[in-house]
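Figure S4 source data
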Amino acid sequence: MTQQLQKLSTLLNKSSAAPTKTASLNYIKYFELARDKQKTPNGDWNAWLILAGRGFGKTWTGAYDLVNYALKNPKTINAVIAPTFGDLRRVCFEGVSGINSLIPKECYANKRGVGFNRSTAEIHLWNGSKIIGFAASEPDRLRGSQYHRAWCDELAAWRYPEAYDQLMFGLRLGKKPQVIITTTPRPTKIIKELYARRNQDVYVTQGSTYENVDNLAPSSLRQFKERYEGTRLGRQELYAEILEDVEGALWKHSQIDHLRVNQEQLPEMTKVVVGIDPAVTSHSSSDETGIVVASLGENGYYYILDDKSGKYSPDNWGNIAISLFYRYNANMIVAETNNGGDLVTRLLRSIDKNVPIKTVHATRGKVIRAEPISALYEQKKVFHCGNFTELEDQMCSFTGDVRGKSPDRLDALVWALTQLSVSTGKPIWRIS
């Protein structure tokens, strides 16, 4: 690092009379440290949208891009906008990965290496370029200014999204003004609009927390996995997925997240059922076979213990269902026979003739069958032991419109919970 800075200093001294020969961060270590997803993309884009998990290195990426541009392009005006003025100073400028950490002191306009004005959040560089900070909480302060380049940090957390519009009105200097947006995703209107323009004028980079494991504390990574892996919050904050509840769906992700337990929290079980919604074909376009294990606790609450649904041949799903029956010491297998009829029973009996099997035939629509189960969740009577991402996604996207892909995992869950309700003497509805 010292040698690289010396090289940079020599360059600066040689070109001090000609600011157009400005310094570039390519002369120091930061460029070499950047992962591919952190390097400014080529191409004709207006916005670079970086949707990434906590700890990915979003701040470093935004700061690096802005500083690199300002150093390479003399007399440019560059803006950085954060949710609040406190965020601006604490994270974007003075943070361990912020702008100040990336600028060698030789590059400040002040020869003593003092270039950041904390009261105005401004930096003046040796080559005549400026980096000016703004708080999105005060959008009117962006009026009237002009910029060559901008960096928006945590756009999804801005209280006043109109600050982005004010920035866009001012982003009009130079041949190709561009904006870099670094944020953990949330399904806000502005994020969804930008994401919808991907592959048009918006370049999208998505990354997870775990892509930066070399720079994160092992204890923090363990905590992330133990507490948030598989949850809706973890998918958003760690894996940068844009998650939004489907209007009209019978379940919501936030609802299920509040009904989640671990193995140590399980009571004694009075009944365990393996629910199956079988697929009778196994080619690439076949539906999945839903296989869900549910139980009734001695406390009167229901628990989802496992989801082993997937695309299987009949023999495979039959063997999986039987193995789950014994693993969880189940009382029975309940299998829908709308597709397959007697073949379903014969298949299971051919694998193990001793397993109790109850066949059910759906005479009511999926919505009518699912609504009482949804009500149990609303009453906080059903808990998920662990995270079942694909099952939960299916639940939280089910509106009753059956014209699309069949909700096989959900169907298996409904059959299992309904059968358990029958065993209580208070069936949710007549099962078949």
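Figure S5 source data
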Amino acid sequence: MIRALLFYLALSTFMVKAADLSVAAYPSIQEALNANPNHMLFVPAGDYVITEKIRIRGERSGLFGPGRIIQQSADQPIIEIENATGAEIRDLTLTRPEGKMESRNEGVLAIKCRDLVLDNVRVIDNRSPAAAITVRESKDTRISRCLVRNYMRVSIDDRTQSKDWGYAFNCTDGTGISVDYSTGTLIEGNRVIEDNFVPTPEVKAKYKLGDYVKKNAVKGGIMNQQAWDSNYTDAWQQGSGIVVNAPEVNDLTRVIGNHIENAAQGLDIHADHVIVSQNIITNAFIGMKAMHGSRNVLITGNQFVRNSLWAIGLMPGAAAHPATEDKPENADGGSIISNNIISDFGYGDAHWIWGDERSPIKFDNGQQPDDPPLADVIITGNVIHSVGKPRYKYAVIIPGGPNAPRGLHFSNNLFHPGTQGVCNGELPE
């Protein structure tokens, strides 16, 4: 009884304080923030239409409450948090109105923050190649219980400035949550769902997806000649549900208990010391990949459902490199893949693009000849489960050659064979 009374008094005090610091007392949310630096402000229920981004700075600043913020300007993020310590955004809905949902900007953009909290935030219809929630150059961020819904749009992926590629093509693009150049991030219990763009032949034809719109005079260094000559790429689903990016910088990240549905790539990891656990990734053409020098990645206890190209992939990428005079080696490996379930592989919406010549688990060589090979990976306790005839050639693919993956250790897995077996070679024990 006494405990309940104390709780009630504390809650009443909090509610009074929140009421005293409400954005409703000011002409706009931004004016309320400017008048109350270093305070959390309550956003009551209702719609708040803005045409400029909301800027949050300082210490212990932020917004919370049931209100809905509607960004009318396509060339503006909805909320920008920069150089803030202990900032929080809680319980808000952030969106763009009908006819103005397409943008090239973020829903939430956080730059150079410490101890940032984004909790139970809903970012709806922020359809942009930029991520709905972006965190850059930050430390100890927590993104939890957020909903990102309908974040993709038709765009152009322009790789003409890259010496590796050298072309641009029509695509669907968009990312739910992106964490770049950051450390100590927790991404937990979020839902990232795309309902609008589904990879059907009709959608492909309507927007000419995959067709090149520009091409350099000289082929990119890692481009396949046949793909270059065809003026088309199958990889027109771009973006990811969740991205953890910046090889050699991004570190100490936990991606736990998220639900990702209808993404292009479910999880895209380019980072070190990462825990990927208890996530559900369904109907992505790639369930997850870790590459570009991703080291010490623990992939455990996840569900991969209805993926099409692969469910789990580990491989070097262009950002991997051997040791130099001023830099240590950036190599992939020292990782564990354990206790994951891969089911209904090949039954996703993108299956018609990729066909049956695919594999649920893929290890690969690097994109560049000098990329250090993937090395030292334990694969244990995983299940690849197929009901009926499998829609994959092998359960596991391991390439050969001088830079082939090395030090792969398989034990106690249950892999339903593909149409040609469990592995394209002898499975290492």
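The radius of gyration is 23 Å. Residues 152-415 form one domain.
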